[in-house]
Write a structure and sequence with these properties.
Distance between the termini: 30 Å
Largest sheet: 6 strands, antiparallel
Number of helices: 18
Keywords: ATP-binding, Coiled coil, DNA damage, DNA repair, Nucleotide-binding
Family: Belongs to the RecN family.
Mean pLDDT: 83
InterPro entries: AAA+_ATPase, DNA_recomb/repair_RecN, P-loop_NTPase, RecF/RecN/SMC_N
CATH architecture of one domain: 3-Layer(aba) Sandwich
Number of strands: 15
GO molecular function: ATP binding
Radius of gyration: 33 Å
CATH topology of one domain: Rossmann fold
Structural class: alpha/beta
CATH class of one domain: Alpha Beta
Low-confidence stretches: 1-17
Shape: flat
CATH superfamily of one domain: P-loop containing nucleotide triphosphate hydrolases
Strand order of the largest sheet: 2-1-4-5-6-7
Organism: Candidatus Nanopelagicus limnae
């Protein structure tokens, strides 16, 4: 799908240019594919094959790796589970994002594995660490951008045009959005203060009481949970002592000691050390586990030595817990105790500030409104600056996309970024993205008035506009892999040749993988993969093979005429490949 976020540019890693790439995907028991390993190279890769051979299943497999919803119906008939694994090269910044999501990156590559069972259960591993589809989804859009046949319809949705323009311009909205949020908070603060002034005396009394209690108790974040845990421990000292002592007795009992028995096992294994590497590896794992058990014995001994009853401490903790619970009962908000306690800390810390606001009365409102004025002026400057940059880059984007679209067999087409700027003097004009509304307008004919894209563009024209946008924007994008599923739908002939040419151009900036049924597109490939199937009773098997030279000519002949053995079709295929080679 179209990536709509304004992302920072990814820097250069220690080995590779700072863009991700898909290196390999392994598929087991997924739909019509029994088993297949597919290696992907840089440049433009096309996947072709007869209808039903499994081309789209490759895309489905990648979707599962990237966190898409799983479906037990995808598991191959007669199998218990489907397993899909994808390997991606990732730059430093993306590696950090994956690590923060709980995955592991090794040697600038991440391996994501997804298992789907017939029972509907799904399992995800990221770098060998158990993860979740949601965690993978959080960084998937930085790995791969997928354009399915329906993706181009997103261009007609509100907000998409602005996001595309901001991507092209490399705009960073963070400072503007910080100011916008500060201004909104100030407006809310003034509004709340005006509402509260009518009940100022009662509010000040309540807040003063909270502030005094808060100062007296000085509660700390997480304190209540810690106290309750220590009370539970001190109240169970005898039971804890008995349990740990019994465990240690079993550890140390000469007749019953599990550790002694395990030591005997280790001695037996040591006798054949060096005789077989596989057994040596098992022995090493056993020794490591035994050492861990001995560490646990030491830890239990240490724990037991520190475990002692402390009636005075127990009583003080009970008193402290009672005081905190009393404070929470009087001033806490919500049913979740831990959340309410943390909110109480925030309320207690801000109580004096609120008292100052209420005590100041109308004068305080005047002071806050002056602060709001200063914030609004700053917001205004930043909003107008964004509008100016959007205007300048909108003209550039319009010109560049128009040039690309015209090269896609639409010689008279026009692509226009239309910008409507709201009144910058009105606070109501400002949103979290500025004061602009951005629209994509399009005309396919000479002299035609550009209108909203969804009103005038056919499905094939939408696909070509999408491709033209990606070609123009790709240079500034951190995404390293684009996948197009039949982006050539609805086009043919010369238009198909130009679609292939543009995909090849895009592949100079990123890895491009295309699922296509058009020979005119496939001819541009740097790497050509063919998905073939064979019928064997009720079992359908598919495989994916890389073809080159004569194999490519035969496949393109099949795509041109459906007759790969036809000499005429092969001559036409050779001619097409020669035209592309010399283009």
């Amino acid at each position: 799908m179209l990536n709509l976020s304004c992302q920072s540019r990814v820097g250069v890693g220690s080995k590779r240019i700072g863009k991700s790439s898909l290196e390999e995907i392994s598929i087991r028991s997924l739909g019509v594919i029994e088993s297949s390993n597919i290696e992907f190279k840089p440049g433009l890769t096309v996947l072709t094959g007869e209808t039903g051979a499994g081309k789209t299943m490759v895309l489905t497999a990648l979707g599962l790796v990237l966190g898409n919803k799983s479906d037990s119906d995808l598991v191959r008939q007669g199998q218990e589970r489907a397993i899909v694994t994808g390997k991606f090269a990732v730059p430093k910044e993306l590696a950090q994002q994956i690590s923060e999501a709980g995955g592991e990156v090794e040697d600038e590559s991440v391996v994501i594995s997804r298992t789907v069972s017939t029972a509907g259960k799904s399992r995800v591993l990221v770098g060998g660490i158990v993860s979740s589809a949601a965690a993978v989804s959080s960084f998937a859009s930085s790995l791969v951008e997928i354009h399915a046949q329906s993706s181009s319809s997103k261009l007609t949705k509100a907000g998409v045009a602005r996001d595309l323009l901001d991507r092209f311009a490399g705009l960073d909205l963070e400072n503007y959005q910080d100011t916008f949020e500060q201004y909104q908070q100030m407006k809310r603060r003034i509004s709340e203060l005006k509402d509260q002034l009518s009940q100022a005396d009662r509010q000040i009394a309540e807040l003063s009481e909270l502030a005094d209690e808060f100062a007296r108790l000085s509660p700390k974040s997480g304190e209540l949970v810690e106290i309750e845990n220590e009370i539970a421990k001190l109240g169970s000292v005898e039971l804890l002592n008995q349990a740990v002592s019994s465990a240690l007795n079993l550890f140390e009992n000469e007749d019953l000691s599990a550790v002694n028995l395990l030591q005997q096992i280790r001695k037996n294994l040591d006798q054949v050390n060096g005789k077989d590497k596989q057994l040596d590896q098992i022995s090493e794992r056993f020794t490591e586990s035994l050492l861990n058990l001995q560490d646990i014995s030491s830890d239990l001994t240490s724990y037991l030595s520190q475990l002692e009853a402390d009636p005075n401490r127990f009583e003080k903790l009970q008193d402290r817990k009672s005081s905190l619970n009393s404070l929470l009962k009087r001033y806490g908000k919500g049913s979740d105790k831990e959340v309410a306690f943390e909110q109480l800390l925030l309320d207690g810390k801000s109580a004096k500030e609120k008292i100052a606001d209420l005590s100041g009365g109308d004068q305080r409102i005047i002071e806050l409104e002056k602060e709001a004025e200063i914030l609004f002026k700053k917001l205004q400057e930043q909003g107008l600056s964004l509008s100016k940059l959007r205007n300048e880059n909108g003209a550039k984007l319009s010109a560049q996309v128009t040039e690309e679209v015209r090269s896609l067999s639409m010689p008279n087409a026009s692509f226009v970024i239309d910008q409507i700027v709201s009144d910058s003097k009105s606070p109501n004009s400002y949103t979290s993205t500025g004061i602009d509304e951005i629209f994509i307008l399009f005309s396919a004919h000479s002299g035609g008035t550009p209108l909203a894209l969804n009103k005038v563009a056919s499905g094939g024209e939408l696909s070509r506009v999408m491709l033209a946008l990606e070609v123009v924007i790709a240079e500034a994008e951190p995404i390293g892999t684009y996948i197009f599923d039949e982006v050539d739908a609805g086009v043919g002939g010369k238009a198909a040749i130009e679609v292939g040419r543009r995909l090849a151009k895009l592949s100079k900036s990123a890895q491009v993988i295309v699922i296509t049924h058009l020979a005119q597109v496939a001819a541009w490939a740097d790497n050509h993969l063919v998905v073939k199937k064979s019928e064997n009773g009720l079992v359908t098997q598919s495989d994916v093979m890389e073809v080159s030279a004569n194999g490519r000519k035969i496949e393109i002949a099949r795509m041109l005429s459906g007759q790969e053995d036809s000499q005429t079709a092969q001559e036409h295929a050779g001619e097409l490949l020669a035209i592309v080679k010399n283009a």
